[in-house]
Amino acid sequence: MYVDRIMTREVVTVTEQAKLARLSELMQLRKLRHLPVVDDAGRLVGIISHRDVQRAEPSPITTLDVGEVNYLLSKVTAGQIMHRSVVTARPEMLVEQAGCLMRDRRVGCLPVVDGDRLVGIITGVDLVDFFLEVTGCQVTDAARIAVHLADDPGRLAGLLTAINQAGGKIVTVVSPTHIDDSGQRTAIVRFRADDPQAVIDALRAAAYDLDTVNLPDS
Q1: d(CA 196, CA 218)
Q2: How many CB atoms lie within 10 A of CB 58?
Q3: What is the pLDDT of residue 55?
Q4: Among residues 61, 97, 122, 146, which is most buried (max CB within 10 A)?
Q5: Residue-range domain boundaries for the chain
Q6: Would you say 79 and 16 are in contact if contact means Cβ atoms under 8 Å apart?
Q7: Which of the 8 DSSP states describes residue 151?
Q8: Whether 83 contacts 52, CB under 8 Å
Q9: What is the pLDDT of residues 130-148, one digit of tens each?
Q10: In 43-94, where does DSSP find H-type helix?
Q11: Which residues contact 83 (CB under 8 A, 6 or more apart)?
Q12: Tens digits of per-residue pLDDT, 189-207?
């Protein structure tokens, strides 16, 4: 799946001239952690984080009076506190590549650009939602099993076939790349069936090594 399938397209942005008070207000009202900064043509020129705004605001224990605080808030602009070197993604980037980029560069979001024009944004929440969808963990009417399999060609296909033959319909399959000391890896499968327990019994009868079993909510 590509970034353009999960990114937020309606992005809240500001210009370099936006005042600090406006930035703080936007972030609080819209519950945002990041604000992309764009020019009049919609080109990305920088980004501001919630932490950047906090650092620019007067300290709660400041000795400034209210007038001085308001004066400061009216003078500091987005252009003065934004980061001009922005880590970005492109719409055709794979979601997992975007996740690796965010992890490697230690950033909380990736503005998505087409050329230099901002077309969306992907955040850590978007990645979590994608992970939840891929794993199927929000599907409440499916059974979940974790099965130890030898890391040999055809083992996973054999497991899925066995589930189908026992009356199960595959919902999701996840198999992390980690291989344990015995040369096995774990396949996590969610499936629907009229009788999930019968499917599980059939797998055990076929000598599959089931690590965990979770039946669907009744």
Answers
A1: 12
A2: 14
A3: 83
A4: 122
A5: 3-131, 138-214
A6: yes
A7: S
A8: yes
A9: 999 988 988 989 999 999 9
A10: 50-56, 66-75, 78-81
A11: 46, 47, 48, 49, 52
A12: 999 999 999 999 999 999 9
